[in-house]
């Protein structure tokens, strides 16, 4: 028994990855018979247990382990495939497992009765396999393969209801935009390979992934490499200006949005940036911080005006990802990973709660035969009375998102903000713009999530209908949500609710910041944030619950926010239209110039052919025909001699004889 | 006195008449008659030249031989004409042109 339990972390992590893959294969083979999803569920439960007990517990704060297997050889370079287990990868794998498990349980109820549910389980297992594989790859090429698989699984799940036109458009958009990022990642891999001659993370950075001394190529090269990797992360983690796919990705089932497009896959970009962090030089880090800051700000702004409950959450995800990316940019990637972990729980919970609300709204719509959008928050209101548990759970998640004390979000957001301030003060005045923006974004975050809660759960129900019977979601849905809500509280991450330094995740990484710590910030900043949030909530309460709304609904700024800054329209005009017109002009070029040249050549050849045909017909054949005709004519002349009359023959013979005789006589 | 030349003249005349008959007549019988003329012209020549062979009379013997052959040839010719008539219902050689191309 003791031997049985003594599984090595490497083997365990392999099993963690392979179990969902086996579930995927099993579901694929079972096809329509595999509706229950038990296989996927069992696989993910086992993966979670293995990951927690045999991988995370063994590896965390211990010596990192890596193992390599020969993969293939090109020339003298050998590529390996392998597993790297250090604090970062073990943590990431555990997060993915722990988030995936409640989503699987939740999906059993949420997706019940869907016609394509067998596909759903298959895709979900495929996604888990890809994401878990991505986390423990010790090789950039291997990571890239899983990276692509994750993108593909996401594509399949966004387009899960593929009969809906908008879902098809959304998954196409997500896929195409992710291709841009994948291209960046691939270029980055090529660049790293050309500089260091290896793609193995252990060879590059050491097992901890923390070594800062690398043989440097020229600064320009390093900047290029860093930017390439960042572009990869930008598409996956939905950073401005490649964020446009994420709000549209909400066309997928809500459980999927919660797992993939809020908690895990979008975090893959942040994870990648953390993995290759030593590659980035100052320029790249500044660029990363600026992009993250812009993303955080504009998506928080867009979230203010959205009406679709899932879109609000999607923009909030983008905004929080912006926070993480800023953390990477200021060099505090441990804070980024910390926020990634806390965000995964409360954002997953927010989506699952939203899913429960949408579920009820959709039932309500069906019962009353109404033509309303079940995801529009303007149609909801007062749901607190019918769904108190959902209300409480969603409020906890919202408080965590807003960074309210006693929640996990408070700790991680403070970690990022304070690091950013310290970084900015270390570098100079102009840099302060970034942390100040982030502070404003935090307050905006509190406002828009407050707006969502007030509109959905407070006030009166806004649609007139006879039957108003909402009820709480069943235990299959509430259970996972309760679990996630507990994980959204501070004590999971740190015993001290007010100081992020005590959190075990930050303790595990132990990186040294290149800037000085400023103690006064640790007191001032949380107070500012909490007060700001409280003020914004009071404002929101007045506006949305007491109905003292001061703005006109067709306000220009709200319109701008609702339409996502017209970015989609700009892209449509700038890229889609220009691509189309480029294609059209290429088509024209192809048709008129390339084909035209060919046709021109063809007509010339045809003319030459006609000429030679004329020569053939009238000169060559003419000569032959003339000779033949002459021969024929001569033959024709002699023909009447053979008239068959014996007397004539005799007469001729005699004449010839006579001529001969006369000739002989005269000679 | 009648010399060899006279014989040859008569023979020539006979030959020419026979030749004319062969070429110009429109009746197969008359052509056969023309052939007889030519044979007789040659027989006359044989007899005339036999004066130079007074030992064996070879010319006269050969003449007798030729007469017999001529009689046989006429019989054969008449038989052919009869058959031609049966086939073509005419004995005008102008109308029998199966040899033409």
Write the SSE topology.
The complex is a heterodimer of chains A (667) and B (101).
Chain A: H1 2-5, H2 9-30, H3 38-59, E1 65-74, E2 77-85, H4 87-110, H5 117-136, H6 140-158, H7 165-196, H8 201-205, H9 219-236, H10 245-248, H11 254-263, H12 267-275, H13 282-305, H14 309-329, H15 333-368, H16 388-402, H17 408-427, H18 433-457, H19 475-487, H20 504-509, H21 519-545, H22 556-562, H23 567-639, H24 646-666
Antiparallel strand pairs in A: 1-2
Chain B: H1 4-24, H2 28-49, H3 58-88
Helix pairs in contact in B: 1-2, 2-3
Task: Write a structural description.
- The complex is a heterodimer of chains A (667) and B (101).
- Chain A is mostly helical.
- Chain A has 24 helices and 2 strands.
- Chain A has helices spanning 2-5, 9-30, 38-59, 87-110, 117-136, 140-158, 165-196, 201-205, 219-236, 245-248, 254-263, 267-275, 282-305, 309-329, 333-368, 388-402, 408-427, 433-457, 475-487, 504-509, 519-545, 556-562, 567-639, 646-666; strands spanning 65-74, 77-85.
- In chain A, strand 1 (65-74) and strand 2 form a beta hairpin.
- Chain B is built from 3 helices and no strands.
- Chain B has a single domain, classed as Helix Hairpins (Orthogonal Bundle), CATH 1.10.287.
- Chain B is an all-alpha fold and 101 residues long.
- At the A-B interface, helix 24 of A face helix 1 of B.
């Amino acid at each position: 028994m003791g031997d049985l339990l003594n599984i090595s972390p490497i083997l365990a992590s392999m099993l963690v990855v392979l179990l969902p893959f086996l579930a995927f294969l099993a579901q694929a083979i079972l096809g329509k018979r595999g509706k229950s999803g038990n296989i996927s569920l069992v696989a993910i439960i086992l993966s979670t247990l293995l990951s927690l007990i045999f991988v995370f517990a063994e590896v965390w704060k211990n010596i990192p382990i890596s193992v390599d297997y020969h993969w293939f050889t090109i020339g003298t370079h050998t590529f390996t495939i392998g597993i790297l287990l250090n604090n970062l990868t073990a943590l990431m794998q555990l997060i993915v497992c722990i988030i995936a498990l409640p989503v699987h349980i939740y999906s059993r109820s949420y997706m019940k009765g869907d016609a394509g549910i067998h596909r759903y389980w298959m895709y979900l297992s495929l996604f888990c396999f890809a994401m878990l594989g991505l986390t423990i790859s010790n090789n950039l090429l291997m990571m890239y393969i899983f990276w692509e698989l994750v993108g593909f699984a996401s594509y399949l799940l966004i387009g899960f209801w593929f009969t809906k036109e908008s879902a098809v458009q959304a998954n196409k958009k997500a896929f195409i935009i992710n291709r841009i990022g994948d291209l960046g990642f691939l270029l980055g891999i090529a660049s790293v390979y050309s500089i260091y001659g290896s793609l193995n993370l252990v060879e590059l950075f050491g097992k901890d992934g923390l070594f800062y001394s690398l043989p440097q190529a020229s600064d320009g090269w390093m900047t290029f490499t860093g930017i390439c990797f960042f572009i990869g992360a930008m598409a996956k983690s939905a950073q401005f200006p490649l964020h446009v796919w994420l709000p549209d990705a909400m066309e997928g089932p809500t459980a999927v949005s919660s797992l993939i497009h809020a908690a895990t896959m979008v975090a893959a970009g942040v994870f990648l940036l953390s993995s290759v962090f030593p590659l980035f030089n100052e320029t790249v880090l500044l660029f990363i911080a600026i992009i993250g800051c812009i993303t955080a700000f504009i998506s928080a702004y867009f979230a203010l005006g959205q009406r679709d409950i899932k879109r609000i959450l999607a923009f909030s995800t983008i905004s929080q990802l912006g926070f993480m990316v800023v953390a990477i940019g200021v060099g505090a990637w441990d804070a980024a990973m910390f926020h990634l972990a806390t965000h995964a729980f409360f954002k997953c919970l927010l989506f699952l709660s939203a899913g429960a609300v949408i579920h009820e709204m959709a039932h309500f719509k069906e019962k009353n035969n109404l033509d309303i959008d079940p995801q529009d928050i303007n149609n909801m209101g007062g749901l607190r009375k019918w769904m108190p548990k959902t209300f409480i759970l969603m409020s906890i998640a919202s408080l965590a998102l807003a960074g309210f004390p006693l929640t996990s979000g408070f700790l991680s957001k403070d970690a990022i903000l304070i690091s950013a301030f310290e970084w900015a003060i270390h570098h100079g005045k102009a840099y302060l713009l970034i942390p100040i923006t982030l502070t404003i974004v935090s307050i905006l975050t509190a406002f828009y999530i407050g707006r969502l809660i007030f509109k959905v759960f407070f006030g009166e129900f806004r649609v007139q209908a006879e039957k108003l019977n909402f009820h709480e979601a069943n235990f299959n849905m509430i259970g996972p949500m309760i679990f996630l809500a507990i994980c959204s509280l501070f004590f999971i991450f740190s015993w001290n609710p007010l100081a992020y330094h005590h959190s075990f995740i930050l303790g595990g990484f132990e990186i040294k910041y290149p800037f000085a710590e400023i103690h006064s910030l640790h007191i001032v900043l949380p107070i500012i944030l909490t007060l700001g949030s409280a003020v914004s909530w009071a404002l929101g309460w007045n506006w949305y619950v007491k109905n003292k709304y001061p703005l006109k609904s067709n306000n220009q700024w709200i319109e701008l926010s609702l339409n996502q800054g017209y970015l989609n329209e700009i892209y449509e005009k700038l890229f889609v239209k220009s691509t189309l017109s480029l294609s059209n002009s290429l088509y024209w070029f192809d048709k008129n110039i390339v084909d035209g040249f060919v046709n021109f050549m063809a007509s010339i050849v045809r003319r030459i052919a006609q000429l030679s045909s004329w020569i053939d017909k009238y000169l060559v054949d003419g000569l032959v025909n003339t000779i033949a005709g002459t021969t024929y004519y001569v033959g024709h002349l002699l023909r009447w001699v053979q008239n068959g009359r014996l007397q004539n023959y005799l007469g001729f013979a005699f004449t010839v004889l006579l001529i001969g005789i006369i000739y002989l006589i005269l000679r | 006195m009648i010399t060899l030349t006279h014989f040859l003249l008569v023979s020539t005349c006979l030959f020419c008449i026979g030749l004319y008959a062969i070429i110009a007549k429109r009746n197969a019988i008359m052509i056969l008659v023309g052939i007889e003329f030519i044979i007789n012209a040659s027989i006359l020549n044989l007899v005339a030249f036999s004066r130079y062979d007074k030992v064996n009379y070879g010319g006269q013997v050969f003449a007798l031989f030729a007469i017999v052959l001529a009689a046989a040839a006429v019989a054969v010719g008449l038989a052919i004409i009869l058959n031609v008539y049966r086939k073509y219902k005419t004995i005008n050689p102008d109308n029998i042109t199966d040899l033409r191309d």
